[in-house]
Structures are given as C-alpha cells and as structure tokens.
C-alpha cells in the first residue's frame, strides 16, 4: 500500500463550475460540481506525484500554509 499525505484543497465557484486549488504544491483543477472539482484535484495531485522527480516536489512544496479569515473595513 502506498503512503498517503493530507494537503489543503480550496474550492471556489467560478462561472458555472468550480475551481479547486492545492496551495502547498500550486496545483489546480476544476469541475462542474464541488465533488468533481475535489476529485479532479486529487487526480491531478496523484499524477504529479507519479511523474515529478524528487527535486521538483521539493521545489514546489510549501510546508507552511495557513488558511484563515480576516476582517477588513471596507467603508
């Protein structure tokens, strides 16, 4: 069995579909639904790990990613 690792997936609506993004590796995908965008991102990440060499993974990998909300005055 291959090892697994968790990554961040940010999914947002764009037009009539959804865009999914993994900030740790700067890899994105899309889909017609949230679930499809999520599954397509997983597939893109798995393909990346299947084809990328170690140096490319280390170059792209951001190990510290923080997702938070901020409050901003807009008026």
UniProtKB/TrEMBL annotation:
The lineage of its organism: Bacteria, Bacillati, Cyanobacteriota, Cyanophyceae, Oscillatoriophycideae. This is Type II toxin-antitoxin system HicB family antitoxin. It comes from the Bacteria. Coiled coil: none annotated. It comes from Floridaenema fluviatile BLCC-F154.
């Amino acid at each position: 069995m291959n090892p697994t690792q968790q990554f961040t997936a940010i999914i947002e609506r764009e037009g009539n579909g959804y865009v999914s993004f993994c900030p740790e590796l700067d890899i994105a995908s899309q889909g017609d639904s949230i679930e499809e965008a999520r599954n397509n991102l997983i597939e893109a990440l798995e393909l990346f790990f299947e084809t990328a060499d170690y140096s490319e993974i280390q170059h792209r990998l951001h190990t510290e990613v923080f997702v938070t909300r901020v409050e901003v005055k807009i008026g």
